[in-house]
């Protein structure tokens, strides 16, 4: 009976005082890049092994951005589409009030991927993200939603 009485009193104390919750500072909500030393270093290829999203962070999901310019025109050139797609991603980030270093994860879709396209991809991701390389997955696909589309990038963003 004494044990039950202590549990009830403890429960009442918690109910009346509440359980404290830690509020993160905006600076604590930045993604943390992890590249374990015992794994292959992916940074020369433009990505990180893992990214930790701090607890309490708000996430935004950016839909796939293709290489269309502001009028909807797609160049037939892969490199031009990739550059434009990353410019479109930057515009989407701006619309969220976010920066490239807040991107935790990218998924890129490449039509008929081969190793010749990797240099173009790596150059653009490094230009966009600098040293804050997000986790990334490249998915080779036979085609995308619009026939002349050769590249698409989507992102998960940690908002501050």
UniProtKB/TrEMBL annotation:
Source superkingdom: Bacteria
InterPro entries documented for this protein: RutC-like_sf (IPR035959), YjgF/YER057c/UK114 (IPR006175)
Signal peptide positions on this chain: none
This protein's name: Enamine deaminase RidA
